[in-house]
Amino acid sequence: MLGTQIRPFVFFSGQGELMGHVWSGTASESTPAFQINTLVHDHIEYVRLGPGFIAELSLQTAVSFNLAGEIQISLWNRNSHSLVNQNAAMVMNGLLRVDTSFVQSRVEFFASMEPKLDLESDIEFSSNIAVCLRLKQPSILFKHNIFKEERIPGNKHSLRKAKYRKFEIPGRTYNLNQKNNEMCNILMRKR
Description:
Layout: H1 15-24, E1 31-48, E2 54-74, E3 79-99, E4 104-113, E5 116-124, E6 130-137, E7 140-151, E8 158-169, E9 172-174, H2 178-190
Antiparallel strand pairs: 1-2, 2-3, 3-4, 3-5, 4-7, 5-6, 6-9, 7-8
């Protein structure tokens, strides 16, 4: 991630350790395997414009990422349910500013979103083994705000505008393959 090699994720090694998690109940709680908060961009630049003005450009982007998993196993009913979820958040803040002796102008924008991805599995191992995998992406809300401000130095004149936008990206369930669909149908009929 970001040019750094990450060690492999190990939830358990061997059946003994897995059964220890099952009997103690620690596997049924969401256990984080990987978490990171990182600053992706922190950039500032000054650009000379045609009439000789200086524009200040600034951009900061941060990302947060969490990978976690849980599993419930019932030896009595001979079935199990597991969930591996990947949550992320992205925030971007940018600024463009031009200051002159006769006008000060700035535009600032802010964007954020929190994408998620869930992998669920249901396993039935009573007589015939049936495995159902579901890969789902819940709906995502993308927020984008723009703020504009202009001032005239030495004057009370000030102009401020703001735009707030929200876009919903619909959720979806991914079709993995035909064999998986058949197994999911068998498990749904048993319930």
